[in-house]
Amino acid sequence: MRIGIYGGTFNPPHTGHRKAAREAIGALGLDKLLVIPTAEPPHKELPEESAGPEQRLELARLCFGGLEGAEVSPLELERGGKSYTADTVAELRRLYPEAELWLIMGGDMFLSLEKWYKSGELLREAGIAVSARADERERILAEAEKLRRERGARVRFIDQPPIIISSTALRDCLRRAEGREYLTEETYAYIVKNRLYGARAELGWLREQAVKLLDPRRVPHVLGVEQEAVRLAERWGAEVYDAAAAGILHDITKKCNDKEQLQLCEKYGTMIDNLEREIPKLLHAKTGADLAWHEFGVSPAIREAIRWHTTGRENMSLLEKIIYLADYIEPNRSFEGLDRLRALAYEDLDEALRLGLQMSLDEMEERCIVPHPNSLRALRYIEKELDRKRAEPYSGIGAI
Questions:
Q1: Which of 50, 219, 252, 261 is placed for a possible disulfide with 283 were both Cys, Cβ 3.0 to 4.6 Å?
Q2: pLDDT above 80 (res 398)
Q3: What is the rounded radius of gyration, in angstroms, for the C-alpha atoms of the chain?
Q4: H or E stretch covering 128
């Protein structure tokens, strides 16, 4: 039996790792490739934003899942402590006394192999398969010949095209809402959901996820809200990414019926009031905010913008005001007074918010709908704020 050993921090594992594993399985004719995430790297500190050991194990399972011949092992996590390759090889030798063991590593690691902990024991128990670029071949073959001559090592070279990104560079990409193309779909979703590496979901991915949850008839509205929210954010100096993400996700539970809305409240521990319990259609803003938080790893600011996009509230943040108005004035809307409201939204945001709240309350009164108290409070608050601003003395050039 021929077994490969592919270890690393996998922080996170990406498609380059998966490709290297696939190539090793084929080149060495492995019966099994054990992918073994380290518990605690012995020679380096992991960055503060790193995934924990159990999370890295799960990420590896998601990354290498479905790769024929590959098996993710918790061996080093179960052993605990610093993860020395020689100890892992020794343990595998006990588990597979008759197996031919091959340790897969990159060229940089191979060139420092003689300095490793118990390197002599490691070389006696396992062959070394060096997965490296063709331009590294000459140096690696020279070192391999030296190890064969001096240590009796078994070394094979696996010609690999260059891995186009490192885990370090990928972590930087994820913080910029980039890098999805270097991860399997399952790995990416796990990273976003669990807010690993400070990741922000790519907007294109968020749109794809939202469309899966929306009634097709609602998609134009949602895309219109995103478009309007971005324009308003650019006009008023809000974070454009947050505005776009909140616009994309603001209606993700709108399709749910009353029973499903209440089930989501129970699932996420969402607090609801008596009016919302009587009229569960009001709940989509709260359940949407909680689903976005738990499943798509959004920031607190985005979550709150989604939560208040229907009723508004007292003392709304800039982003909350933008999403409330974007939902009201997006390009697909058409109702009396809309042109005035649209123009005002780009002239005076607070005046537009006041007008939007008043128009919404007037419409509910005409339709004999009981308004939510938060909407009434929101209107009173913004009216007081506008009165206060008007009462402030002019402090420009020439003021006395």
A1: 261
A2: no
A3: 29
A4: strand 127-132
Tokens coding 205: 């991915």
Is 42 contained in some domain? yes
- The identity of residue 76, as a single letter, is E
Note if the pTM is more than 0.70.
yes
CB 248 within 8 A of CB 210: yes
At which of 182, 213, 237 does a domain end? Answer: 182
pLDDT digits (tens, 9 = 90+) for 347-382: 999 999 999 999 999 999 999 988 999 999 999 999
Compute CA distances 237 → 115, 231, 385, whole Å.
54, 10, 20
Measured CA distances, 83 to 9, 107, 289 (Å): 10, 20, 41
Q: By residue range, what is the domain housing residue 380?
A: 202-390
Do 264 and 172 share a domain, yes or no?
no
- 39 and 137 assigned to the same domain: yes
Report CA torsion sign: 290, 296, 301, 305.
negative
pLDDT digit string, tens, across residues 129-153: 998 888 888 999 999 999 999 999 9
* Helix, strand or coil, per DSSP, at residue 158: strand
Number of structural domains in the chain = 2
- The SS3 assignment for 36 reads strand
Integer CA distances (angstroms), 132 to 20, 118, 310, in order: 9, 23, 55
Residue that wins the pLDDT comparison between 173 and 271: 173
Q: Give CA–CA dist 261/166, Å, rounded.
A: 42
End residue of a domain, out of 127, 147, 182:
182
